[in-house]
Design the sequence.
């Protein structure tokens, strides 16, 4: 099930989408402006309540783009909001005017997420295999991984990127710094190890049978992580 983050810079005047209908299909996560749980979501929906929210939303887009590749959807306060083009230029995937039909918004969101997880015929062009036993098979079209020929596990983009990095050098330790630079490619954050460890924790919860005794993603003390295959 995909996770959709809901983020309002201010208290929303009214709902733009039907949350009850949304929760039947997706896991809705309430986010705050610190976006601490952004690594957990596949998409973010933001609502511009007033035109004065423009600078706040721009800052949030910057923060989200720096930490995640998730979809970003924004609903504007007015039909001809001055922020519409700005949001799109900063990387928003879709901007909805104030009078956009609720059903239309939901269909746009559904279609985007379904493309993310759309299952296609398995072929060498859609799977990337590593290791002699092909224990892990990445499926870039679905942002997922097949483990030891078993069921397909859908990942977030950050989880997928990390396992892709580890798969390039199986059974070899990869440092926290190397993983961080491969995924985020910046030097602004001081606690890089925590950022990497947080994503790995969620990744392990999906691919390991026992997260306390991981079989595949091993911690290499004072170094980083190693994919054992």
Sequence:
């Amino acid at each position: 099930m995909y996770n959709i983050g809901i983020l309002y810079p201010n208290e929303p005047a009214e709902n733009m989408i039907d949350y009850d209908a949304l929760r039947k299909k997706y896991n809705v996560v309430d986010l705050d402006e610190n976006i601490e749980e952004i690594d957990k979501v596949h998409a973010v929906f933001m609502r511009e309540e007033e035109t004065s929210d423009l600078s706040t939303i721009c800052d949030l887009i910057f923060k989200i783009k720096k930490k995640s590749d998730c979809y970003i959807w924004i609903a504007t306060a007015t039909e001809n909001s001055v922020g519409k083009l700005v949001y799109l230029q900063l990387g928003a995937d879709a901007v909805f005017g104030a009078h956009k039909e609720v059903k239309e918004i939901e269909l746009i969101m559904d279609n985007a997420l379904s493309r993310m997880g759309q299952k296609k015929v398995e072929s060498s062009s859609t799977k990337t295999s590593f290791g002699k036993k092909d224990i892990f098979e990445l499926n870039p079209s679905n942002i997922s991984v097949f483990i030891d020929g078993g069921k397909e596990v859908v990942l977030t983009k950050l989880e997928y990127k990390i396992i892709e990095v580890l798969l390039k050098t199986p059974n070899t330790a990869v440092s926290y710094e190397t993983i961080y630079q491969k995924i985020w490619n910046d030097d602004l954050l001081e606690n890089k190890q925590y950022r990497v460890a947080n994503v790995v924790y969620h990744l392990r919860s999906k691919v390991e049978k026992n997260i306390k005794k991981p079989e595949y993603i091993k911690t290499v003390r004072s170094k980083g992580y190693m994919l054992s295959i």
Observations:
- Helices lie at 19-25, 54-67, 83-90, 102-117, 157-168, 176-183, 192-207.
- The two ends are 27 Å apart (CA to CA).
